Amino acid sequence: MALLNVNIDHVATIRQARGTDEPDPVWAASICELAGANGITTHLREDRRHICDRDVRLLKQTVAALFNLEMSIAEDIVETALELVPDQVTIVPERRQELTTEGGLDCAGNFKNIQKQIQKITDKNIPASAFVIPERDQIKAAMDLGFEAVELHTGPYAQASFAEKSGELDRIRASVDYARGLGLTVHAGHGLTYRNVAPVSAVEGISELNIGHSIISRAVIYGLEKAVRDMTALL
Ligand SMILES: CC(=O)[C@@H](O)[C@H](O)COP(=O)(O)O
Ligand SMILES: NCC(=O)COP(=O)(O)O
């Protein structure tokens, strides 16, 4: 059975909408842990649109479960990770204009640049995972780069039409087998929801799922009634 890391980026998205101090992703991380999450994932974006440096510093100090830092290979972000020493880093591609991560890391096409940065991370003994599309050449390149894990991008599966879904799931299954055959640990994530997660979590060999947006969305809806009651009680 796969372990669950909860991505808490979008708790910070709500905070940043007003630039105040609530909701605090650090509190959210504690609640996730108390509820049984195996790890906490955050993406420290170069533009700091949600999670910021203060958050990752405090999360490093307070998360008792696995702290997985998603990040690009931008030099200053790599420096931050080297100072922080999270339990795991996941290297992702990043574009300022994107709404969310669009594709996988191009391990094959950007080999030299990634190698330069990943070397610093592995030299510090920080376990590193590469967020890649489920394709053999990317998985092989991730292994050649020295990553110990790959996170298979489940966005194409999540976005696929009903007719295309089983094909996307087959791609994930084949990639899991291929990656494990190369000795890589396999994670998966992106776009997973309460509706589409079951077939992915049933795939043999995936050890970790990273799920964020859907869980935080449900939390808003589930918590709203109590939040309104708490406010009316004060009036
Ligand atoms: C890499 C990945 O799949 C995402 O979790 C990524 O971190 C998304 O970034 P946002 O949380 O900003 O959408
Ligand atoms: N790497 C995927 C992740 O952390 C969460 O993605 P999402 O569930 O927010 O789409």
User: Main beta sheet: strand number and arrangement?
Assistant: 8 strands, parallel, barrel
CATH topology: TIM Barrel
Taken from the alpha-carbon principal axes, the silhouette is globular
Give the low-confidence spans. Answer: none
Distance between the termini: 47 Å
Secondary-structure content class: alpha/beta
Question: In CATH, what is the class?
Answer: Alpha Beta
With strands numbered from the N-terminus, the spatial order across the biggest sheet is 1-2-3-4-5-6-7-8
User: How many strand elements?
Assistant: 8
What is the CATH homologous superfamily assignment? Answer: Aldolase class I
Beta-strand content estimate: 15-25%
Strand/helix succession: EHHEHEHEHEHEHHEHEH
What binds here, in terms of ligands, is: 1-deoxy-D-xylulose-5-phosphate, the ligand NCC(=O)COP(=O)(O)O
- CATH architectural arrangement: Alpha-Beta Barrel
Mean pLDDT: 97
Task: State the helical fraction.
Answer: 40-55%
Number of helices: 10
Site (Transition state stabilizer): 151
Active site: 43 (proton acceptor), 70 (proton acceptor), 190 (proton donor)
Subunit structure: Homooctamer; tetramer of dimers.
Function: Catalyzes the complicated ring closure reaction between the two acyclic compounds 1-deoxy-D-xylulose-5-phosphate (DXP) and 3-amino-2-oxopropyl phosphate (1-amino-acetone-3-phosphate or AAP) to form pyridoxine 5'-phosphate (PNP) and inorganic phosphate.
